[in-house]
Structures are given as C-alpha cells and as structure tokens.
Amino acid sequence: MVKINRRDCLTGAAALIAVASTQGCDKEAPEAMIDENLPVSGFTKTSTAEDVTKGLDLSGQVGLVTGCNSGLGLETMRVLALRGAHVIGTGRTMNKAQKACDSITGTATPFELELTNLDSVRNCVENIFQRGLTPNMVICNAGINTFGDLELVQGIEKTFFVNFLGHFVLVNHILPKMIENGSGRFVHVSSRSAYKQAPSVGIDFENLRGEGKFDSGEAYGRSKLANALFSLELSRRLQGTGLTSNAIHPGLVLTNIARSAPMFIRKAFDFLGPYVAKTPAEGAATQVYVATNPALDEISGLFFENSNAVIIKGKHFLNDQSIAEALWGVAEEMADGYLT
C-alpha cells in the first residue's frame, strides 16, 4: 500500500512523491546539509551530468554502469562515453544492453546482467574479464521500486535482492582486480528513502525473507539504506587500497521506475513529474560527479546529494557501522556459493 502523507497532499504532489519513494515527508524527518568541511562543488540540483564533467578527459578509463538501457543509467553511460571513457553497459538482456550501447556516441560494450539471478551476476563479471576489461569506476545504478505485494527471489524480498544483494555479489567479484590496479571508485545509487523511509530499526534483519508485515515503501527504503551501508562498510574495507566507495541520492527523477505502480500513480507521475522532478540529465549528475571528479580522489564513505557531500541532521542509520558490518555478514550468507 502506498503511503501518502499530509505534507505531500498540501503540495498537491502526493502521488508523484509516492512513485519515487525518495522524498520522505514527515516534518520531523532527517534533512541533508552540505558538508562545508569537504570540497564544495558549486553545482546545484539543476546541474547536468555534462555540466559536472565539463573539461574532463576520461580517455583510457573504463566505467561500468548497471541498468544502462534507460533513465539514469543510459544518461550516465552516454556522458562517460562522451568524455572518452570505455563504458561497460549492463542490461537485463543482451538485446537491451546492445540497443542502449548502440544509441550513444563513443565506446560502449554491452553485457547481460540480471540482478535477480546470481549466476547471471557471476557470469557477467567473468565475461567482462574475458574481454580484457577491468573497471576504473563502478556505478551501481540499476534498481526497482515495487508498489504491490510481497515478492520473493530465492526466498529473499525482491526489492532488497535486486537493489542490494545483486550488486553486492557483482562488486565482490570485480573487487580483486580493481584492488590489483590500485585505484578505482564505487558509486552506489541510494536515495533519501535510506534515511526517510527505511524501517524504524534501520535494517530489520528478521524481515528480509518476508517473515513479518510487508510495506512496499519501507521495503524500498530498506534496500536503499542497504546500498548506503554497503558503501560505508566497503569504504572501511578499502582503506589503504587506493579505492573509494560513496553513496548518492540522485533526486526525484523522471524515469520509468514507476512502471510497476498502479495506474493512478503512473498518471500522476506523467502529469506532475515535469513540474517537480529532475530530468535524467540532471538526475545523473551526482553519480557521474562522484565517479569522475578529481577533487574526490581520496574521498570515501560519504553520502552525496546534488553533487555535494552532505551531513544528515536527525535520526538515521547511514553511518551506523555496526549495522553495516552485520549487513555484510548477512549478505555473505545469502550469497553463499556465489562469492568464490
């Protein structure tokens, strides 16, 4: 069931906010502030991926973008290739990935990656390495938002599986070769839902297999908090390697993430979206900025919004190291047999 709150109603955009599940709505909810102690980019919510990479030459670099066939993934791939990078573009099918790669200017190589299938995840990495490619940057962009009833994938709640666990296995398979190279960046596309819509305990470990009450909004928030906590723990494990890991919120963006929503929500999104949401060009800016900007070479373990590192004021779990470590252990158990 989609939750619509009082403030959303007053703004007339309740259905749209419900579609994206990224805005949060409680007046007491945590809020983000730019961290003035770190490099401030000067970019804003209207800056585009082209704006944040203006003047950059990414020739010789390899970037991996999951979910390259539409929305943020397609724009991210397009701009990285525009700046000279060789982009590994993954899609749920080879046909989707191939079509996306063929649509852009520059060098892009398609690979099939179905995040609900851990065999597909492992095979994707093997195929990438067989082509002689090792990423310098990995942008974990692909994701889903469900609006219906509980669905399980291999006994695990589907949103959590796709948004987090599939990427967890992907990154762990790519990691050793990136560490050999001594440099690289991981960018995890999270959301404000990570600190505004997740369960009250953060990650409710006892409910990852649908044991308790299912709430689609909390399920999305949980998965996005998992993305951020994965980035946090990965950053800790990468200390001294030359690699970094950061999480980002792209904003409320006009993409097809609402494709599984009820018709009235999709109609509301189509009608209201152009007035309140970012374009894909604007939405892709933060992940592209974090993946490429030279000022962030040694910046790791942070959360970015509108191309700036932010501090979250209020109760949240983004920096909870104990939950992050526990999540890593649970993910290893869930992916048993697929990490070696």
Provide an overview of this structure.
This protein is globular. Helix 2 crosses helix 10 (263-276) and helix 6 (118-130) packs parallel to helix 7 (158-181). Residues 1-25 have low confidence and may be disordered. It contains 13 helices and 11 strands. The strands form 2 sheets. Strands 1-11-10-9-8-5-2-3-4 form a 9-stranded mixed beta sheet, sandwiched between helices. A two-stranded antiparallel sheet has the order 6-7. With 340 residues, the protein is an alpha/beta fold.
Secondary structure layout plus pairing:
Layout: H1 6-11, H2 14-20, E1 31-34, H3 49-52, E2 62-66, H4 71-82, E3 86-91, H5 94-102, E4 107-112, H6 118-130, E5 137-140, E6 152-153, E7 156-157, H7 158-181, E8 184-189, H8 193-196, H9 216-237, E9 243-249, H10 263-276, H11 280-283, H12 285-292, E10 303-305, E11 308-313, H13 321-334
Parallel strand pairs: 2-3, 2-5, 3-4, 5-8, 8-9, 9-10
Antiparallel strand pairs: 1-11, 6-7, 10-11
Helix pairs in contact: 2-10, 6-7, 7-9, 9-13
Number of helices: 13
Rg over CA atoms, rounded to whole Å, is 18 Å
The major pleated sheet works out as: 9 strands, mixed
What's the overall average pLDDT, rounded?
A: 90
Q: N-to-C SSE series?
A: HHEHEHEHEHEEEHEHHEHHHEEH
Helix content: 40-55%
Shape: globular
Sheet-strand content, in percent, reads 15-25%
Poorly predicted regions: 1-25
